[in-house]
Design goal:
The complex is a heterodimer.
Chain A lengths: L1 H6 L4 H7 L6 H23 L4 E4 L2 E4 L3 E4 L1 H9 L6 H17 L3 H6 L2 H14 L12 H16 L9 H11 L4 H15 L3 H6 L1 H9 L5 E4 L11 H5 L6 H5 L20 H5 L6 E4 L8 H9 L2
Antiparallel strand pairs in A: 1-2, 2-3, 4-5
Helix pairs in contact in A: 3-9, 4-8, 7-10, 8-12, 9-10
Chain B lengths: L1 H12 L15 H7 L5 H5 L6 E2 L11 E2 L14 H5 L19 E4 L15 H5 L7 E8 L5 E8 L9 H5 L7 E4 L1 H4 L10 H8 L59
Antiparallel strand pairs in B: 1-2, 3-6, 4-5
The chains are: A mainly alpha, B alpha+beta.
């Protein structure tokens, strides 16, 4: 069964059942968000319309809204430097936002590298590339720790020396230079060396944001988990598949349907590719432990 | 291992190339790299497009702002918009007078090609200097080649030089003879215990030593050298012997033939 399902394209069933648009809804919205944000930044240098100045590390919108990347600010703090007032306000706003909507929303809805690694992941699946090496998904937390300790020791905002996210994003806005080689390297790494290698195992920025989103209210849930037909499409498409199982298969263990793992990026691809509409966005409090399936199952079984 | 590599890279990245200048108010390089969050707001708010952000291949820490004076110098805006735009203290917000900026120090680095040193009156670096007559002066010395002209030597006074780079930008040579260098590279440093005698004398209002007890040793001159007008009290000669044999001039160099003086 699973073999047959595997030969099909991920989400084929969902496209059949729900139509192409509904089976790509969140993906499309995410791309609009990612490219829209990039577009806002590019409007200045390309068209002379300065709505937003700066880049993802710090930006100033309409000369009123400062936004600071808290991870960069934290490294700078570790290096012994406190931002200016606007910089600090920017940190507070960004922190508040991601505390609310989920830290790794940054990864799936904002980060430009996500487009690259998603493409690599998609291509890897289409080309049927298997194997390669693997690293623990906790590696990123070690790298995160290292960047902070390293920043303190060297007095340099350490990760910014090589951060591919800012290299790409800043590069597109201020001039790319050879930053494209870093982007290609990450693409090839994810394509041939390691499944979801960069975003899922190495990137300390994502690791940092996952910590911010540890208790965020906006979550993805599987309230219709009783309807799951084990097609595995959600696992295949998910950049952090380990987060799904406890929620989707936790009924017997009395675990609620909300995906609480902080590494869920709230990308919503599982919602898209599920032909049974098992998943949905919800609030983390909406997590009625073991009882929820029973409530939900009844209308399904009619 | 990645950490170690990154640490070494961080150390190497601290070496700012001599011709890359930081914006006004930039903290010392070591601090700058910890405070700057690479946002590029200073670049955006510079009205003259002087600043750029380092690309990965630039030998400046990636994403940090710098400028090359020979390309576009700092125009020294009075309101210093780049500093105002900085969301961190990487550009020190305490800098409110652009004349107090220290982006570097101009150094007239090549005396062999500088037109003024060749005895011409180029003067361009002096003329364009926003702190003219303070940061750069023209110091007059006799032109010993012609023997009858003066040379006007552009002379930088580092305490007034902001390192804006307008002199380097406008030097008329193919390669600029005057360049902005980091102060650390450009400046010597006296030992802390050094006291300049004549300054101390001026401060104290009198000589700090008992001059009557001072012993004057004979001046050491290269063999056969003659210094017109030089009198060495310790030489044993009397002062009237000024202008020794071999020096036709005596105390004052003669005017060149045909120029003033006695016919």
């Amino acid at each position: 069964m699973s073999q047959i399902a595997h030969k099909k394209r991920i989400g084929a069933e969902a496209v059949e059942e729900k139509g192409w648009l509904r089976a790509h809804k969140w993906l499309i919205l995410r791309r609009i968000s990612q490219f829209g944000i990039l577009g806002l930044f590019l409007l200045g240098p390309l068209a002379g319309i300065w709505l937003v100045k700066g880049n993802l590390n710090y930006s100033y919108t309409l000369d009123i809204l400062p936004l600071t990347d808290p991870f960069v600010a934290l490294q700078s703090l570790a290096a012994g430097h406190v931002p200016e007032t606007l910089g600090l306000i920017g940190v507070a706003i960004v922190l508040a936002f991601y505390l609310l909507v989920g830290g790794r929303v940054y990864c799936s809805w904002v980060c430009p590298i996500n487009v690259v690694t998603d493409l690599a992941g998609w291509l890897r699946d289409r080309l049927g590339i298997k194997g390669g090496s693997s690293l623990s998904r906790n590696t990123r937390y070690w790298i995160l720790g290292m960047t902070l300790v390293g920043s303190a020791l060297t007095g340099v905002v350490l990760w910014e020396l090589i951060n591919p996210i800012s290299m790409l994003h800043r590069g597109l806005i201020f001039g790319l230079g050879t930053a494209w080689t870093v982007v290609i390297a990450i693409f090839l790494f994810d394509l041939f060396v390691m499944t979801r290698g960069w975003c899922g195992r190495l990137c300390p920025v994502g690791a940092f944001y996952s910590l911010i989103g540890r208790w965020s209210p906006v979550r993805i849930s599987a309230p219709q988990r009783a309807a799951c037909n084990d097609c595995m499409d959600c696992f295949e498409v998910c950049p952090e598949p380990q987060v799904i199982r406890p929620a989707l298969k936790g009924e017997a263990k009395g675990v609620g349907p909300v995906i609480l793992a902080p590494n869920c990026t709230n990308c919503g691809r599982c919602i898209d590719v599920c032909s049974k509409d098992v998943f949905t966005y919800t609030l983390r409090f909406n997590n009625p432990a073991s009882t929820s399936p029973l409530v939900r199952v009844q209308p399904e079984s009619q | 291992m990645l950490g170690l590599g990154l640490g070494l890279y961080a150390k190497q990245s601290k070496a700012l190339p001599a011709l890359a200048l930081r914006p006004p108010g930039a903290l010392p390089e070591d601090d700058f790299l910890g405070a700057c969050i690479r946002c590029g707001l200073c670049v955006r708010d510079c009205p003259y497009n002087t600043l750029e952000l380092a690309k990965p291949e630039t030998p400046v820490a990636t994403g940090t702002p710098f400028f090359n004076a020979r390309n576009i110098p700092c125009e020294m805006c009075e309101d210093i918009p780049c500093v105002k735009a900085c969301p961190t203290m990487a550009l020190d917000h305490a800098l409110v007078d652009i004349n107090k900026a220290k982006m570097g120090v101009a150094v007239l680095i090549d005396h062999e090609t500088c037109l003024n040193f060749l005895g011409l009156r180029c003067d361009v670096c002096y003329r364009v200097c926003p702190v003219i007559d303070k940061a750069i002066t023209l110091d007059m010395v006799p032109n010993t080649r012609t023997g009858r002209h003066a040379m006007f030597l552009p002379t930088v006074h580092s305490e007034h030089c902001t390192g804006c780079g307008k002199c380097e930008k406008s030097c008329v040579l193919e390669e600029s003879a005057i360049r902005i260098l980091p102060p650390k590279l450009a400046k010597g440093e006296l030992g802390r215990h050094y006291r300049v005698g004549w300054d101390e004398q001026k401060k104290a209002g009198r000589s700090l030593i008992d001059e009557s007890k001072m012993q004057d040793l004979p001046d050491r001159m290269p063999e056969g050298a003659v210094l017109p007008g030089h009198y060495d009290p310790a030489s044993g000669h009397t002062e009237s012997l000024r202008g020794m044999p071999g020096s036709e001039a005596g105390a004052i160099p003669s005017l060149p033939p045909g120029l003033g003086g006695k016919p």
